Amino acid sequence: MVDSTGQLSVTYKEFGVGVAFTPIVMSEGRISLKIETEVSELTNNGAVTLSAISIPALKKRAAKSTIELPSGGSLAMAGLLSNDVRQNIDGFPGLKDLPVLGTLFRSRDFIKQETELVVIVTPYLVQPTARKNLAKPIDGLANASDRKANLLGHLNAIYGRSSEAPVGDLKGDYGFIVE
Q1: What per-residue confidence (pLDDT) applies to 166?
Q2: What DSSP designation does 147 have?
Q3: Residues whose CB is less than 8 angstroms from the CB of residue 107 and which lie 6 or more positions away in sequence, other chains included
Q4: What pLDDT is recorded for position 20?
Q5: Residue 83: beta bridge partners?
Q6: In Å, how far from its chain's centre is CA 145?
Q7: Under DSSP, is residue 146 helix (H, G, I), strand (E, B) or coil?
Q8: Helix (H) or strand (E) holding 119
Q9: Which residues of 70-85 are buried (b: 16+ CB within 10 A; e: fewer)?
Q10: pLDDT for position 175
Q11: Are 117 and 84 in contact (CB under 8 A)?
């Protein structure tokens, strides 16, 4: 936009792939799911040129749906197709237009771009659990020995299913030092 003082201002618009959903828990463990998908991309069709600056346009495709699913049921939502086919003929000026020999002096580019967005959603109902059943992020964290750290490059001890996982603690040097 150009305002009354001649200043050029451009408004940023988000583009790319967007997914928004709103789950509602209903009776008997069912989930009502409202899902909105959107794909937008920059295009030169409809571009605006202001003060020798070309501002591309947005091409947007959107789909909305509401569905009721059981916990663990899946929804596959496809569509938002884009099919772009372009063909370009380049060649040596004058010689490319000769009736028979012209094909030797020209090249044909054929560009076909097809995209489709597929969204697969599987909602689950979870039950609350006791605090003692929850694991901390540091559970199972144990420093590797100096020999394993220096020779094998291990940062923490590796244990298998047969041995008990070590109780993690944050004693020692951890994190980053900013000077």
Answers
A1: 62
A2: H
A3: 89, 90, 91
A4: 92
A5: 114
A6: 39
A7: helix
A8: strand 106-121
A9: eeeeebebeebeeeee
A10: 65
A11: no
Place of tokens 């597929």: 118
Cβ 21 vs Cβ 75: under 8 Å: no
Tokens of 141: 């964290």
Provide CB contacts within 8 A for 9, sequence distance 6+: 1, 2, 3
pLDDT at 164: 66
Residue 101 has which token pair?
A: 């020999």
Report CA-CA distances (Å) from 53 to 29, 34, 47, 116. Answer: 55, 40, 10, 31
- Tell me the residue type at 109: D
Q: Is 67:33 a contact under the CB 8 Å cutoff?
A: yes
CA atoms within 13 A on the CB side of 138: 8
pLDDT, averaged in runs of 10, over the chain (179 residues): 72 86 88 90 81 82 89 85 78 82 80 82 88 77 76 71 63 67
Closest by alpha carbon to 92, among 77, 103, 106? 106
Determine contact, residues 29/71, Cβ cutoff 8 Å. Answer: yes
Question: Tokens representing 73?
Answer: 């049921």
- Candidates 92, 91, 81, 83; CA nearest to 111 is 83
pTM exceeds 0.85 for this model: no
